Amino acid sequence: MVMEEQITSAIVRAFFNKLEAHLAVDVAIVGAGPSGLVAARDLALAGFKVAVYESKLAPGGGVWGGGMLMNEVVVQDDATAILNDFGITSVPLGNGYHTCDSVEMASGLIFGARKAGAVIFNTVFVEDIVIHNGVISGVVINWNPVHRLDMHVDPIVVTARAVLDGTGHPSEIVKKAVNKAGVQVDSPTGGILGEKPMWMEDGERTTVENTKRLFPGLYASGMAANNVQGGFRMGPIFGGMLKSGRKIARIIAEDLK
Ligand code: 48F
Q1: Residues lining ligand 1, CB < 6 A?
Q2: Tens of pLDDT along 215-254?
Q3: What's the per-residue H, E or C state across the chain?
């Protein structure tokens, strides 16, 4: 075989082996933002088969850009233990907060989730959910460029025992459950209340409080959880996102035991 054939063949085989090994997973995580990546690492370390779907080429969600493209973020003291687990450096400010280089944090979260055994499928858009007899049972996936170009191409399906909506502000997966499947989720109205404007302190608190199982097989973390329950936004402070990822991993692990 000439070199070109060997290289192409290696990529095709390795990718399709990975895809085929993850057509039925324990946990499908939609969105590789900070909450999804922390949940992915914790669940993979607990022995679950985890696949993460990220529509963008680069996983990491809203971490990369820091605040207004200034590539630093803030993390509260009580969440730095999670950063330490990933080997991510943070600098104490002495007032209860730490700063963290957003490039180190995004890349560290991605690396940590992957090294723990979670498989990340980037450039893959989750366009729908699977529902069997009143239980969310998987995700419907397609290439994001296919989605973006509005091409009429049927997707493929991955079955999952648990589906985590980590899609951030739009809570896209819960939206599918409410609008398409007509399910009532565990929120004050049974639907999506929608995110409120900025209030950092309250938003940080409720992000963790709002992190929960919403419906059999369906969970939400991070800003998706806050959007569903009508929490406030909080901007470039990330302790709540990290703690939300850890909390939902615990809840899912308990449910799947
Ligand atoms: O928004 P995002 O970073 O999720 P998060 O864990 O963290 C929120 C913070 O970054 C920030 C904040 C902190 O103060 O407010 O916003 O809640 O990442 C969500 C990821 O989901 C991807 C999207 O590209 C992003 O990287 N995503 C969204 N919809 C889909 C998706 C979809 N349908 N399929 C695949 N990926």
Answers
A1: 30-36, 53-56, 61-63, 125-126, 166-168, 172, 222-224, 233-238, 241
A2: 999 999 999 999 999 999 999 999 999 999 999 999 999 9
A3: CCHHHHHHHHHHHHHHHHHHHCCEEEEEEECCCHHHHHHHHHHHHCCCCEEEEECCCCCCHHHCCCECCECEEEEEHHHHHHHHHHCCCCEECCCCEEEEEHHHHHHHHHHHHHHHCCEEEECEEEEEEEEECCEEEEEEEEEHHHHHCCCCCCCEEEEEEEEEECCCCCCHHHHHHHHCCCCCCCCCCCCCCCCEEECHHHHHHHHHHCCEEEECCEEECHHHHHHHHCCEECCCECHHHHHHHHHHHHHHHHHHC
